[in-house]
Amino acid sequence: MSYMDMVGGSFISTGNKQIIPIKINFDWMQTYNHTVATAQTVDGVVKTYWQRGMAINDCHYEYFSAAATTMNYATALGFPGGAHPGYIEYTSGNNLYTNNYTNALAPIAFTAISAAPAPLVTTADTATVALVPGDIVRLSNTNPQVGQFGGIEFTVGAVVANTSFTLAYGPQVVAGAGMASFYRKVVYDTPWVPRKRTIAAITAGATTVVSMTVDHDFVVGEQVRFHIPSVRGSAAFGMTQLDNMIGTVIAITKTPYTVNTITVDINSSAFTAFAWPLTAFDRFTAPTVCPIGESATDTFSSDTITDDKIINTATTGIILGGNTTVVSPVGATGNLIYWKAGNFWTQP
Amino acid sequence: MYVNEQVVLQNEEDVIHNYAIRFGVSMRLSEDRLMRDLLASSASALNCVGGTNADNPTEITAADCIDAETTLASADALTVMDSIEGENRYATAPIPNSYFCLSHTSIIRDLMAIGAADFVRTIRYPSQTNILKSEVGSVGRLRFLTSSQGSLTLNASKLGRTVLNNFFVGIEAIACIYVNELSSEFIYLPKEFSGGLAQNITLGMKFFEAPAIYNDLWVGNLKSTPSR
């Protein structure tokens, strides 16, 4: 038998989709729901099988009958009574969507942005992309009222289904209404960690506190460089004194969807104030904070810092669909799932 | 890569040689992509703002190229290429010592739109001796190298259009780091390793390399959108 690769593992289901990074070139995958098999749950899916060549979101199901005495067989897409979740092959990349995760491609319309500290975005559709707190969205076509947000990414805070969501960390701007604008869900954040981030706000002082529009992953001891651009022909962001300065992160504060800051050892007491443009603003470079290494005070042996490295966390693998019920590859919340994946030599 | 014994019995060397070439291309392509993605993720950004396509960033203009060049020069970044002195050749122009700008091929149209006064195509260089095959021309002290593997970010502009990431670099700004002086390894396993009937040769490739930014002030991302 020729040498082939196989990998496997297990997880406890949350009832929702499960991303399985797979480190080999794989052609097939199977899952086994150990909980359902043990309990012989009615209609419960015990085994699923996927092989390269199947349609997106499809797989084979082997599931208990209504009486839980025999096994039935169906496909995910052709399941009696309607399609159920299957497998989606994915490749995470540098902030690009993959065609395999089609939910992310279409822009979703929104009509207003409020003047709240965490701006409220009014939209009639959050379900298409299953928007939840913590997701990252990118706005577009926000002219004329809130043009300064066009192309910028934000972490989503509170979501009211098919009604609104907040941009968790601001910045606060003058409200816009009657907008014909769009948002896109960023499925895969850039895989290179620690990540460069757009600045939302800066609080000056003996030490400087910086808030970012998307959840950051900086840790204490890392060094960052600030880019606070001057804008050609228009009012700048202010605090241009901070441009190109290097600071060491001395503290981080992260309260999900409320606070997302780093504190750096830069005395900005005498700097001009920082502020995002309140109203529509064209053609500018957004202010950013970029990781450039770590401070000399940290040691190589530290497990909490990247030791001057930027780590590539990109993966390929499978997204196992979930619908919080036992009729899915991941089963219900708390189900124990075993899985294995491998490759084979295709015979013509 | 598996090579079945039928090929082995008849034409092993040529087939393996071709696979080796393909692996080499794959390896260098992987190296380029890793560097590309690292720069797209980590390099400081500078939006083109001199264009007129109503987007942010705009299409690339000569003024934006000058901004990028100034950014590098202000950080004391040294140029990569020496100047090309003028010669008595019709329609040619001297080229100053320059930085590189690494771009997607989509930028070519907009570079041409900059106009001949500012964009000098390689065919108009006084000497054709030191021109890289992927070079399309220069604006100021930026010499543009393009590739179909260049960096793009989909739906990232103010109007939701594709953003072209044009990386302007000075000398020794970025590098590939190799492990223990190893660059790559081509692996050949004879058919005896494939199983009891010894039917397949196995070919593989692995490489030990990491992209790195040596000085974050000597590299940047000049973001632009296509003019149309």
Task: Walk me through this protein's architecture.
The complex is a heterodimer of chains A (348) and B (228). Chain A is an all-beta fold and 348 residues long. Chain A is 2% helix and 36% strand. Chain A has one helix spanning 34-39; strands at residues 6-12, 18-21, 28-33, 45-51, 60-64, 71-75, 87-91, 108-110, 112-113, 120-122, 136-140, 153-160, 164-167, 181-186, 192-193, 197-203, 208-212, 222-227, 246-255, 259-264, 288-294, 311-312, 316-320, 336-342. In chain A, the strands form five sheets. Chain A has a seven-stranded antiparallel beta sheet, with no helix packed on it. In chain A, a hairpin with a 4-residue loop joins strand 16 and strand 17 (208-212). The two termini of chain A are 18 Å apart. In chain B, strands 2, 3, 4, 5, 6, 7, 8 and 13 form an eight-stranded mixed beta sheet that branches. In chain B, strands 1-11-10 form a three-stranded antiparallel beta sheet. Chain B has a two-stranded antiparallel ribbon with strand order 9-12. Chain B contains three helices and 13 strands; from the N terminus they run βαβαβαββββββββββ. Chain B is of the alpha+beta class and 228 residues long. The mean pLDDT of chain B is 89. In chain B, a hairpin with a 2-residue loop joins strand 5 and strand 6 (142-147). Chain B has helices at 5-42, 62-74, 107-114, and strands at residues 2-4, 45-47, 99-104, 119-121, 135-139, 142-147, 151-153, 163-169, 174-178, 184-189, 200-207, 209-213, 219-224. At the A-B interface, strand 21 of A face helix 1, strand 2 and strand 7 of B.
